[in-house]
Design brief:
263 residues, alpha+beta, 10 helices
Length: 263
């Protein structure tokens, strides 16, 4: 799949040529031409002043005018939003709306990926949450019931979590969150960057997130859970509990002094 140039719209300005990561374009006879080696990053689409460039197979209907440089959000407001985020461990029971889920997922979808791989799969469980919980806890219980020499080392860490859940105490893995989101990807950095953008979008909607490594590990290790999530061959790299926080925080929390090196 390559990009396409609409010759009737192209004015031969050369902006796409100058900005092409792979030196894949050239202006010939006043029209931009595709030479190959395209990684489909979309810079040419974004930089073209006449909308002459398109990528067949991509969602061109989703392309829109970019926010003016420096006018997207006030820098001080953005920093305060980052400082205000908290790891939420107590959620209200109300579900996350379909519109809110869509915005959170789009924030993940548009995150940068190494070599423009766009290889993340985003999985959200809300309506099927009861089944996910059953598969996770049953799977952990089955592993813990094995003879000591057959128990996976990771599963032993979950014994107190299972005991508390069975006793009706706080569910350490799910914490009564109404939704769980996973990011599956070959590269952990791709998934981590996407998850961070998803959290920022969630915070802008008044939602809260807990990055849950314990649930992510259990879900990755249990075949029945992976099958339920339709994670294919990509490993589950990130897991986010998602919902409306039951606790409000009127102040930001302090941090240790920053470990900065600026030269």
């Amino acid at each position: 799949m390559l990009i396409e140039i609409d010759a009737e719209r192209c004015v031969g300005c050369g902006k796409c040529v100058a900005d092409c990561v792979g030196s894949n374009l050239a202006v010939e006879d006043g029209i931009a031409q595709v030479k190959g080696r395209c990684i489909l990053c979309g810079h040419c689409v974004a930089v073209c002043p006449t909308a002459a460039v398109s990528i067949p197979g991509y969602d061109m209907a989703d392309v829109e005018p970019a926010a003016p440089a420096g006018e997207t959000i006030d820098a001080a407001d953005l920093l305060r939003a980052i400082k205000s985020r908290r790891s939420v461990r107590s959620f209200k029971p109300e579900p996350v709306s379909r519109q809110e889920l869509e915005l959170v997922l789009q924030a993940g979808r548009y995150t940068a990926t190494a070599k423009n791989a766009q290889g993340c799969r985003f999985i959200v469980v809300q309506d099927g949450l009861a089944e996910l919980k059953r598969l996770v806890w049953d799977g952990i219980g089955d592993l813990l019931a094995l003879p000591a020499e057959e128990k996976p080392r990771w599963a032993k860490l979950y014994k107190p979590f299972l005991r508390d859940a069975q006793a009706g105490k706080q569910d350490f893995l799910f914490r009564d969150a109404p939704a769980v989101a996973y990011v599956a990807a070959e590269r952990a950095d791709d998934a981590g960057l996407a998850a961070q953008n998803m959290e920022l979008m969630a915070a802008s909607l008044g939602l809260g997130v807990l990055f849950n490594g314990y649930l992510c590990r259990a879900s990755e290790e249990l075949p029945a859970v992976r099958a339920f999530l339709e994670a294919d061959e990509r490993p589950l790299q990130m897991c986010l509990l998602l919902g409306c926080p039951a606790v409000s925080y009127p102040r930001t929390a302090p941090r240790m002094p920053g470990d900065f090196v600026v030269k």
